[in-house]
Amino acid sequence: MAEPRSNELMEKIVSLCKRRGFIFQSSEIYGGINGFWDYGPLGAELKRNVKEIWWRTMVHNRDDIVGLEATIIMSPEIWKASGHVDTFSDPMCDCLLTKKRFRADQVEPQSGVAYYFACAVQDEHRTEALHNAAVNLDAHKALLEKMPPETRKRYEFLLTEYWDQIANAGFDPNRLPKIDTRHFSVLVKPGPHEEASARKTAMQFYKRDGLEKPLPILEKKEAIENTTGFNPENGAELTPPRPFNLMFKTYVGPVADEENVAYLRPETAQAIFAQFKNVLETSRQKVPFGIAQMGKAFRNEVTPRNFTFRSREFEQMELEFFIKPDEVIEAIKCSVSSVQSESSELKTENLKLETSSAWGWEAWHKYWVEERIKFYEGIGLPRATLEEYWQKPEELAHYARATVDLLFKFPFGAQELEGIAARSDFDLSQHERFSGKPMGVFDDELRAAWGKLPKEKQDDLRRRYYEHRKKYLTKTARPDDTPEQIEKDAKEDADGLAKGNYIPHVIEPSAGVDRLILALICHAYSEDQAPDDKGKPETRVVMRFHPRVAPIKVAVFPLLKNKPDLVAKAKEVRDLLRPHMTVFYDDTGAIGRRYRRQDEAGTPFGVTIDFDTLGEKGAELKDTVTLRDRDTMKQERVKIGDLLPLLLDRVR
Ligand code: GAP
After folding, report:
1. What are the per-10-residue average pLDDT scores of the chain (652 residues)?
2. How far is the CA of 89 from the centre of ligand 1 (A)?
3. Nearest CA owner, ligand 1 atom 27
4. Rounded distance, CA 245 to CA 612, Å?
5. Ligand 1 atom index nearest CA of 266
6. Angle formed at CA 394 by CA 391 and CA 400, multiple of 5 degrees
7. Cβ-proximal residues to 484 (8 Å cutoff; 6+ apart), any chain
């Protein structure tokens, strides 16, 4: 899906992120490094909160998911087994003029008139020639004789093209004109100046690599529709797309040769598959269960863009939820149950999601789609800001049975926040084949149930499992895998069912931390009108983060900085709250300004300690503070003693 360009709102958001310390360009003092971003004080807190909530939701609050923290650099064999070494690439093309790199599938289709130039010659020759005296056809011929065949072909073309112009001119046959024999084309908008504009771009192209005064030689021109072969920014020709592997390579150990190549992981998921058996054996989990991991991932993206949306270094939060294959469920439960839906529409919000041991992969898949949407709702992204995109069969990866992309409506368009894929038993099977270590599980219940099944049912399940395994083995066959061997292996796998053995299937909800942070920032950004210190309305920028993710939960303000009693009381309040939440203490500037600063930081609550707190206006207000709500700007009077439980209730 092409990602639309940023707009004005995005510019405001990017500027706020820098101004307030959410996100900075990495290595900014050295001019930055494209596709890398740093999180400033507020961004770091926001990120920690999001990751902490994900971990709590996915791991701590459930009995059926455990965590993993694996290394970033792993055996390169992992990436061969996963398919990343061979196929994790994007089609890439370069602008011939500026060398700017594009992802070929993201170039916007355009229409116009394409001008094709055969070559270019140094113009001084023509001008000289035009200013010179007589026709000297022999001189031309002599010149042609001297040229190498390829150049001669081009030059003959040049002569035909410019015959009329040079027919009355003469030039020095001993001086070969400088010629650049490369083809170049350019797409221009139709109109009276189209050729001039095409020539101008072509001249820049030929000039860049040598000719001082290039004269581009036009071969042909034609109208073209919906082409992606030209740079949308300048019309210059793009190179044909070629695959570009996105993994960052490095070397392990002191010798930088092919034997020591390793990769920075492009996803966190593969370590989960590689450690599946260790986790299973040590965690007392049984299928269905999940392994969660979050951490850095690296992709050498061709065109990092849209702020942090597509970065080269980012963080993922991934769950691999292992389930029994449908054939196993059927053997144990007689049939596979699906989730009950109140609507036929392909949306998970109408589903009844009481998990069941009779669920097959489709039910688990829908369950996880809905769980993940609820997660986003819980941190302040309403369902209406999200879209479920169910990939069409032709869009699915060959091993995937279904994939739902959860899109967030970013200012630059609805784009993927998380993918939830039903990946069958592909990953574990691949690691089994590449490592030679068994990745299957033994299931007592299956073995016991199998013996009690009627023969026809056993045959039917065995046949289906066999077909599935054969399909997988055929698709991933290596050169020395014969059809006989594949059939034999598939049969062995199918026979394993009777003994209680199978390779688990997996549902994978895979989210990007940085994209989620960007989504939260975009959704939180708002502008409204609020009175300034003199009561005059002014535009207020306010980050309406859900209190759960807000970087700072509460700001504490003594009304005046130079009143020791106010300051002491404010610090007392700060110290009361600090062990339980992030608190920002601020005593500088007018109180209105201080509120505005916290509005921009997205702090949901502000506590002001004033003279009433000290009891100067009567005993009943003593030890009370004003609690200001960021969104409504309403203030309420609260006893200091009630403050902590009240705030804890609102920020959790
Ligand atoms: N294990 C499956 C997997 O990695 P993916 O769709 O390639 O699937 C999952 O990535 C998520 O990781 C995406 O939905 C996105 O949130 C995040 N992500 C992927 N590439 C990213 C990038 N270049 N920059 C930021 N986030 C990215």
Report:
1. 68 97 98 97 98 98 97 98 94 94 92 92 57 43 62 61 48 57 94 94 90 85 96 96 95 94 98 98 96 98 92 98 97 88 58 83 95 97 97 93 97 97 97 96 97 96 96 92 95 96 98 98 95 86 98 98 96 98 96 95 98 92 97 96 97 91
2. 14
3. 512
4. 66
5. 4
6. 65
7. none
